[in-house]
Amino acid sequence: MSEISAALFQHMKLTIFLTAKDGVDESPFHPAYLHAWNDGVYPLLDDGASWHKPHEEEFPINKDMVDTLYSILCHHWDNKTGITFWKLEDELGIHGGVVSDGDFNRGQVVSICRYFYLKDKFDKKFWATLCRNEGGPGEASVITDREVDIYFY
């Protein structure tokens, strides 16, 4: 990423966040879109919006990663095979909070899943199975938190 691209990305991020300075509900952007920018998740399901498209390469959690995880979750949803967070980590080659044989780490999966949850993808039963206490780490519990906080850093 060039310095200019990085600067333009940060400028756009700040511009979007400033719309929520008085609260997420006051922003014209969907809370999932704000979450995606805040966590560096490419907002794949918001491709009708154009704000993020020029910055596709700057998102740390890139479009391919989001698309891959979406495909995996859709497969489980379509086949009515519930999946726990631990099983999802196994499928992705994640072994604990730090070790991974694949392209993902736990934090990225949590952020992407939270984006999908905020976009109202899948149903409550699907998310309850994925995020149940005995089926995953404590970090997975934030996936189904509807509260979106924006941090200026």
Question: What's this, in brief?
Answer:
46% of the residues lie in helices and 3% in strands.
Ends distance: 19 Å
The oligomeric state is single chain
* Secondary-structure-derived class: mainly alpha
Tally of contiguous helical segments = 6
The poorly predicted ranges are none
Read across the widest sheet, the strand sequence of neighbours is 1-2
Number of domains: 2
Provide an overview of this structure.
By secondary structure, the protein is an all-alpha fold. The protein has two domains: 3-58, no CATH class; 63-144. 46% of the residues lie in helices and 3% in strands. The chain has six helices and two strands; from the N terminus they run ααααββαα. It has helices at 3-18, 31-39, 63-78, 85-92, 106-118, 124-131; strands at 94-95, 99-100. Strands 1-2 form a two-stranded antiparallel sheet. Strand 1 (94-95) and strand 2 form a beta hairpin. Helix 2 (31-39) packs antiparallel against helix 5. The longest helix has 16 residues, at 3-18. The radius of gyration is 16 Å and the shape is globular. It starts with a helix and ends in a 22-residue tail after the last helix. The model has no long low-confidence stretch (mean pLDDT 91).
